[in-house]
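Repro:
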Amino acid sequence: MGLKEKLQELSDTANQLSCLKTGEFILASGVSSSYYFDGRILTLNPKGSWLIGSIILELFTDVQIDAVAGPAVAAVPIISAVVVLSTLSNQNVGGIIMRSQPKTHGTKQSLEGDVAPGMRVVVVDDTCTTGASLLSTIDALQASGCVVVSCVCVLDRKEGGVSALEKRGVSLVSLLEIDSAANKMKPSPVTLGTR
């Protein structure tokens, strides 16, 4: 199954699982919205997890990456899928989790996983609104000497996240987008030029 087919299958799976909810919602960013994307329903689903992990690995087949990283809790299933699937393709990509609060004991670190200066990292999350959670993960990784190659989210809400990331010199690849006319998910036009 190629990238285009995987993206369509991911969209179909998101729709079958009713990941897109309509109504009035307050998002983590504090913004009010008429829809909510419950990404965890998709990222914690066996098929959804496999599709997301394999799509991310395919996007970076021709680019050397050492790890995927993202904020707890939303990115954890995505990171896990990529790490496990990477062993099957001999890409051997590690995982790094950004804690919501640094540890108050032990090493008092904010990043969990094998982190070393010079690592090439892709930052992942289920949803991007303003880009704040991606940016805080980028800050922590760069402070540890890592190189952020790109960011990937399952859904970009198109509310400023892309431009906030571009100001930092980092691109964002979104796997899905909303077909507002049908109140459904559809594949994003992911281009292989993002590799």
